[in-house]
Amino acid sequence: MSLPALALPGQLLGPSSSYAPGPGTHLHASNIYASLSGRPTTTIHPSPLPIKNTPPGKPVLTIPRLHSASPSAELGPVGGRVSNTNALPRVGDVVVGKVVRCMVRQVNVAVMVVYTSGSGGKGEGVVCADDMQGVVRREDVRATEKDKVLVGEGFRVGDLVRAVVISLGDQSNYYLSTAGNELGVIMATSEDGNIMVPISWKEFRDPVTGETETRKVAKPL
Phi/psi of residue 165, each to 5°? Predict the structure, then answer.
């Protein structure tokens, strides 16, 4: 399994049998997932690591935090890049953004990364120089039992979500949908401030406290 050029939080990077988790990644169910957005790198440590059950010579997966001096700075050979002019999403594009407001009938999302149509959120993505606003309406959260959807149980402020653009909307918002197995929350923080791991299509678990929280969980790519 090859490493992606640009990883997003919650994205599968590889099995723990081949890699050891390092900064910017986390281990869940014998697989290593990204905890940050950025370029995954591997480092070989000849001496034993202070990581349980990690033998010498095993590649350590890390994702460094991105620090860009200016909006036009390139992210090197990774798939995403910071654009001088915003990459305007089109209908069918997959986007990743942060939930900035939850209301009874909709969720407001600050769009941060845009993937071209047909990529399914994989491969190259363009990191937006400025956040663009999107809306996930109650009827667009999931494909079934739309009348039973409770927005507050599917999203919380601060969640990172993967969604698809279904309409260009109005002048201030794009209309987004999370009605798909691979769409929804890809990274969430618990009420205690810990990064949670998905345990089902509708729940995350805090690995520190063991407490669970409901979300509209996206299936890892």
Answer: -80, 120
Task: List phi, psi (to 5°) of 51.
Answer: -115, 125
How far, in Å, are 18, 73, 81, 89, 177 from residue 36 at the CA level? Answer: 20, 18, 15, 22, 23
Going residue by residue through the chain (221 aa), what tens digit of pLDDT does each one get? 678 777 777 778 888 888 888 888 887 778 888 877 778 888 876 554 445 445 556 888 888 865 443 333 333 333 444 444 456 788 999 999 999 999 999 999 999 888 876 655 555 677 776 668 999 999 999 988 888 899 999 999 999 999 999 998 877 789 999 999 999 999 999 998 888 999 999 999 999 999 999 999 998 76
Question: Full-prediction pTM beyond 0.70?
Answer: no
In angstroms, the CA 86 to CA 104 distance is 30
User: What CA–CA distance (Å, rounded) separates 105 from 114?
Assistant: 24
